[in-house]
């Protein structure tokens, strides 16, 4: 049995925990897969690199509105893929090399670990590990739905035509056809990517809308805009999956009963099937029951305000968690913030001399206020805070300001006819409760509203207390703020 002072499970945001301040300790970092976690290898970063390619392709296709005669001819998939992963794979290998070869006090454990007690774990190969302090940063994984004929063990395997987001970006050739099951941000982003570069793409949606968890007005507007440019089938679900003799995927559908009158299509045969129906925490694979760890109904490990893992409602001494394995937000920037909190509190705990010996007053609390998110699709969406529905349900005196991209000069330059910015505020406090933007560069121009919420600035102060560059796109945010009625 090998003992460590600190053990970190996972190398996504957890990889940032161990720095020079841990140099005098015996530490280990466990990673059975790729260093860097989902974001680097199969999530935020590679998808956005693909999305940029898709955006450029769509600009070429749609340039006639600007008076240009351009066309999208073709996509060199291997060149696109290699541009993305040549950079990412080098970062992954450099991270592994640094931890494995350049730090004398650090041991890299390449086995998958599961708990056998509160501070003891066993690897798949039978190795046993104990640690005084443990950081669980094991992340999450794509959900593989239970569909007759679909073998979960084969999904994402090399050469198999059924994928999740973990493998679809690394295929050898651009698929001629793709069927996407799902209606969330992963489905929206990949459908945009494949449609834009010339793949015959179909999206199967169980309900009547895309991105249903967004503000209702945003979801409705996005669904209309998305369906105008993509082949979307609403109110259906896959009822059976099979492989054809030539290695393609045949999918049969049934009605979900959620969209009256929805037409159930004939079976669809595609080169690739992408499962994009959600993600779930990797907690189950850690065997949390063996350690007595508290787990939410959705699989997340339960943590307190200081990211300490709970057992029986109380913090388990010396055990912390961060990121998708415990967080209500499956967002890289939130995981990074939680990693910073864990690092601070871990150092305080180490200074106390005893696992769990730190005084609560000396610990840093996680800040989950004004958490923003974006969907990098077409049109792009960015959001922070409450939806209008949530704000009204909260009992606040709600006022809503809304302005279209088409109402500002840069919107004219873009020829944008669907984008808008929406700000929700409290009439009594004049504080921003939420903001939602749909349109080009939404993820960038929402930042002043995130800052205003984070620092408690009043909406009218944000609107009137600074210059807004004319004729830049943030004017749509300014005008939405000015549209708020505080009378």
- Compute the CA-based radius of gyration: 24 Å
**How many strand units?**
23
Query: What is the beta-strand fraction?
Result: 15-25%
Cα shape: globular
Helicity range? 25-40%
Q: Can you describe what's shown?
A:
It is a single chain. This protein is α/β, with parallel strands linked by helices and 487 residues long. The chain is 28% helix and 24% strand. Strands 1, 2, 3, 4, 5, 6, 17 and 18 form an 8-stranded mixed β-sheet that branches. The chain has a 5-stranded parallel β-sheet with strand order 8-15-9-10-11, with helices on one face. The chain has a 5-stranded antiparallel β-sheet with strand order 19-20-23-22-21. α2 runs antiparallel to α3 (77-101) and α2 packs across α4. The longest helix has 25 residues, at 77-101.
Produce the secondary structure layout:
Elements lengths: L1 E8 L17 E4 L6 H6 L1 H18 L15 H25 L4 E4 L3 E3 L4 E4 L4 E9 L3 E3 L19 E2 L13 E5 L3 H12 L3 E6 L10 H14 L1 E4 L1 E8 L5 E7 L12 E3 L1 E4 L3 E3 L6 H4 L16 E4 L2 E8 L10 H21 L19 E4 L5 E5 L2 H6 L4 E7 L4 H6 L5 E7 L5 E7 L3 H4 L1 H8 L4 H6 L10 H8 L5
Parallel strand pairs: 1-2, 1-6, 2-3, 6-18, 8-15, 9-10, 9-15, 10-11
Antiparallel strand pairs: 4-5, 5-6, 7-16, 12-13, 13-14, 17-18, 19-20, 20-23, 21-22, 22-23
Helix pairs in contact: 2-3, 2-4
């Amino acid at each position: 049995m090998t003992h460590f002072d600190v053990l970190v499970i996972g190398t996504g945001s957890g990889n940032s925990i161990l720095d020079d301040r841990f140099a005098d300790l015996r530490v280990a970092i466990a990673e059975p897969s790729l260093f860097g976690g989902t974001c680097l290898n199969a999530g935020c970063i590679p998808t956005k690199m693909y999305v940029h390619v898709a955006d450029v392709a769509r600009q070429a296709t749609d340039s006639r509105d600007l008076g240009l005669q351009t066309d999208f001819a073709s996509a060199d998939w291997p060149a696109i893929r290699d541009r993305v992963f040549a950079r990412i794979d080098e970062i992954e290998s450099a991270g592994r090399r640094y931890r494995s070869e350049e730090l004398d006090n650090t041991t890299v454990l390449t086995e998958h670990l599961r708990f056998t007690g509160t501070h003891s774990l066993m690897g798949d190969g039978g190795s046993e590990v104990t640690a005084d302090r443990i950081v669980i940063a094991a992340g999450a994984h794509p959900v593989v739905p239970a569909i007759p004929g679909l073998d979960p063990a084969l999904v994402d395997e090399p050469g198999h035509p059924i994928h999740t987001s973990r493998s679809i970006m690394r295929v050898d050739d651009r698929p001629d056809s793709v069927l996407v099951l799902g209606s969330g941000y992963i489905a929206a982003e990949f459908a945009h990517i494949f449609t834009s570069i010339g793949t015959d793409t179909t999206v199967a949606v169980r309900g009547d809308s895309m991105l249903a968890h967004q503000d209702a007005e945003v979801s409705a507007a996005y669904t209309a805009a998305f369906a105008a440019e993509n082949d979307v089938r609403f109110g259906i679900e896959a009822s059976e999956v099979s492989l054809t003799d030539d290695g393609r995927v045949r999918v049969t559908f049934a009605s979900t009963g959620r969209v009256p009158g929805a037409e159930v299509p004939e079976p669809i045969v595609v080169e690739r099937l992408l499962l994009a129906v959600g993600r779930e925490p990797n907690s189950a694979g850690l065997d949390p029951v063996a350690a007595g760890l508290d787990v939410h109904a959705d699989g997340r490990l339960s943590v307190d305000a200081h990211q300490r893992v709970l057992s029986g409602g109380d913090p388990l001494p010396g055990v912390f968690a961060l990121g998708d394995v415990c967080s209500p937000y499956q967002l890289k920037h939130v995981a990074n913030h939680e990693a910073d909190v864990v690092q601070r509190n871990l150092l305080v705990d180490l200074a106390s001399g005893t696992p769990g010996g730190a005084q609560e007053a000396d610990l840093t609390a996680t800040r989950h206020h004004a958490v923003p998110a974006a969907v990098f699709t077409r049109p792009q969406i960015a959001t922070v805070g409450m939806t209008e529905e949530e704000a009204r349900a909260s009992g606040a005196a709600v006022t809503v300001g809304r302005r279209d991209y088409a109402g500002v000069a840069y919107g004219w330059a873009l020829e944008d006819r669907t984008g808008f910015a929406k700000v929700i505020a409290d009439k009594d406090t004049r504080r921003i409760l939420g903001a939602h933007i749909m349109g080009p560069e939404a993820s960038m121009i929402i930042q002043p509203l995130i800052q205003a919420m984070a620092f408690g600035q009043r909406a009218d102060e944000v609107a009137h207390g600074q210059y807004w560059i004319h004729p830049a796109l943030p004017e749509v945010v300014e005008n939405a703020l000015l549209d708020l009625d505080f009378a």
